[in-house]
Design goal:
There is one protein chain. Helices cover 25% and strands 30% of the residues. The chain has three helices and five strands. It has a five-stranded mixed beta sheet with strand order 2-1-5-3-4. Helix 2 packs across helix 3. 22% of the residues are buried.
Length: 91
């Protein structure tokens, strides 16, 4: 399902770290036309089935250098740079 705000969608640059390589077959950077984090996760799951659930569970998201917990309604500005960062295990 495309981003629910497709009429407002614009490309954002997405970067995944090597920790997600098993899902992406080595692709680390790509662009997707989305307007929210929810739309981004949907498009990632379309491109790499199963990866969105892993990202939701095991990562934080950095949008233009600011780290956030994943908030589905978070808007993404045109040209935003989005990084998914694996959470560190403590113990």
């Amino acid at each position: 399902m495309p981003d629910t705000n497709a009429d407002q969608a614009r490309p954002v640059k997405v970067t995944l770290t090597g920790a997600f390589e098993p899902y992406t077959r080595g692709e680390e950077t790509f662009e997707l036309a989305v307007s929210t984090v929810r739309g981004l996760l949907r498009e990632i799951d379309r491109r790499y089935p199963g990866l969105a659930a892993v990202l939701e569970e095991d990562s934080a998201i950095a949008i233009d250098g600011v780290v956030h917990e994943i908030v589905y309604t978070q808007p993404l500005a045109p040209g935003a740079e989005v990084y998914f960062i694996p959470r560190l295990e403590s113990g």
